[in-house]
């Protein structure tokens, strides 16, 4: 089996696509426990309650990013999405079917909301975070969504089995070309610690949930890789987009991050022998080897203690990860991070602790 060479990890600036194709800007944004205005319940105790100006500024930030399609994380309901991507302003959106499952709704699957619909509000006693997609209905693009519940490998929280987030399998179509995009919000708490490579090839449905965050993230690798391999084998242009909760750029030299190893199928031992028998898949990502710009203007340049160390956020954890077909569609130098600047420390709490990032593709 051939190794996935580091030369494949090229920057977007080296890519070229036909100038005649229509350009489509894609956005990736974790909007930090987004609720609908006036929701009496929060996702976590003590969450900041956004005020009208906060929602208005989120829309300003949305427009600053300027994407026609946003892949979203940490939205709590269709009504919450509608606060920032209102159907009255020409947006449409779909939320993961995990919302319908948690709410006990009669119709399973993603809930898609378009002009003329009433965005659904949650009725339960709890609020949760979900993956979603929003797109401008007048941008010449359509989107459909399906669920990937297999990413919910669950976790053991002191004997209480808790859900982790489903993936949202989105098909974005513009012109005659479609791109499959899996929106993910992976298990948090294992940003750059070691993940056991043996988990990569074990179906998590055959093993019990674990309390260890790195093992839980490792257990998510099997269904994630299965989706990627299916798309690759089908010849689809595909990408995985979202909050990976993992610093993929932390790997050194030829030893790439374990999540990268799990998805690519190349997991080298100390002698560079590939321990993974699955076919290798060439992967690319944006951003690539760049520091995080999110809230950089208000970060502490001289942290006084380990918990306050800004190393925690120096590398991004949100990415567009894609195969060669999307690589060929990507617009040169189009990937970017969109920080809220100038900022104050309060902005970090009232808006989102994550900043949107973008990548443009040309779809013939």
Describe it for me?
The structure is a single chain. With 364 residues, this protein is α+β, with helices and mostly antiparallel strands. It has a single domain (6-363), classed as Endonuclease/exonuclease/phosphatase (Deoxyribonuclease I, Chain A, 4-Layer Sandwich), CATH 3.60.10. Helices cover 19% and strands 24% of the residues. The protein has seven helices and 15 strands. The chain has helices spanning 52-65, 78-84, 97-103, 213-234, 258-264, 324-329, 345-350, and strands at residues 22-34, 69-75, 91-95, 111-113, 130-136, 141-148, 155-157, 160-162, 167-174, 177-185, 238-243, 284-286, 318-322, 336-337, 357-363. The strands form three sheets. Strands 4-3-5-2-1-15-14 form a seven-stranded mixed beta sheet. Strand 9 and strand 10 (177-185) form a beta hairpin. The protein is globular, with a radius of gyration of 20 Å. The model is unreliable at 1-19 (pLDDT under 50).
What's the quick description here?
With 364 residues, the chain is α+β, with helices and mostly antiparallel strands.
List keywords for this structure.
alpha+beta; Deoxyribonuclease I, Chain A; 7-stranded mixed beta sheet; 6-stranded mixed beta sheet; 7 helices; 24% strand; globular; disordered N terminus
Query: Could you say what the CATH architecture is?
Result: 4-Layer Sandwich
Order of helices and strands: EHEHEHEEEEEEEHEHEEHEHE
Uncertain residue ranges: 1-19
Shape: globular
Give the class from helix and strand content and strand pairing. alpha+beta
N- to C-terminal distance = 34 Å
What's the overall average pLDDT, rounded? 91
Number of strands: 15
Strand content: 15-25%
- CATH homologous superfamily title: Endonuclease/exonuclease/phosphatase
Largest sheet, in brief, is: 7 strands, mixed
As for the CATH topology, it is: Deoxyribonuclease I, Chain A
Number of domains: 1
**Number of DSSP helical runs:** 7
The top-level CATH class is Alpha Beta
Radius of gyration: 20 Å
Task: Trace the largest sheet across and list its strands.
Answer: 4-3-5-2-1-15-14
Helix content: 10-25%
């Amino acid at each position: 089996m051939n190794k996935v060479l580091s030369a494949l990890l090229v920057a977007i600036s080296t890519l070229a696509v036909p100038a005649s194709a229509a350009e489509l800007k894609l956005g990736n944004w974790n909007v930090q426990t987004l609720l609908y205005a006036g929701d009496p319940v929060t996702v976590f105790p003590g969450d900041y309650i956004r005020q009208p100006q906060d929602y208005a500024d989120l829309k300003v930030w949305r427009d600053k990013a300027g994407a026609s399609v946003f892949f979203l994380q940490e939205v709590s309901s269709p009504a919450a999405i509608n606060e920032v991507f209102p159907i009255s302003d020409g947006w449409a959106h779909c939320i993961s079917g995990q919302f319908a499952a948690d709410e006990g709704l009669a119709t399973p699957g993603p809930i898609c909301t378009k002009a003329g619909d009433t965005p659904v509000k949650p009725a339960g006693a709890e609020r949760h975070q979900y993956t979603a997609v929003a797109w401008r209905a007048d941008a010449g693009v359509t989107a459909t969504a399906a669920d990937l519940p297999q990413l919910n490998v669950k976790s053991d929280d002191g004997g209480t089995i808790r859900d982790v987030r489903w993936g949202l399998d989105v098909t974005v179509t513009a012109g005659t070309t479609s791109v499959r995009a899996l929106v993910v919000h992976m298990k948090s708490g294992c940003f750059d610690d070691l993940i056991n490579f043996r988990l990569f090839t074990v179906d998590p449905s055959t093993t019990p949930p674990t309390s260890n965050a790195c093992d839980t993230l490792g257990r998510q690798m099997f269904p994630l890789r299965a989706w990627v391999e299916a798309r690759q084998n089908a010849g689809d242009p595909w990408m995985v987009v979202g909050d990976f909760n993992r610093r993929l750029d932390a790997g050194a030299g030829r030893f790439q991050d374990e999540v990268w190893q799990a998805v690519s199928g190349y997991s080298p031992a100390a002698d560079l022998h590939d321990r993974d028998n699955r076919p290798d898949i060439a992967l690319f990502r944006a951003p690539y080897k760049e520091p995080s710009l999110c809230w950089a203007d208000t970060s502490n340049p001289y942290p006084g203690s380990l918990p306050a160390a800004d190393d925690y956020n120096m590398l991004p954890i949100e990415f567009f990860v894609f195969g060669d077909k999307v690589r060929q569609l990507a617009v040169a130098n189009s990937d970017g991070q969109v920080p809220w600047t100038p900022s104050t420390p309060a902005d970090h709490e009232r808006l989102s602790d994550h900043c949107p990032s973008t990548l443009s593709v040309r779809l013939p």
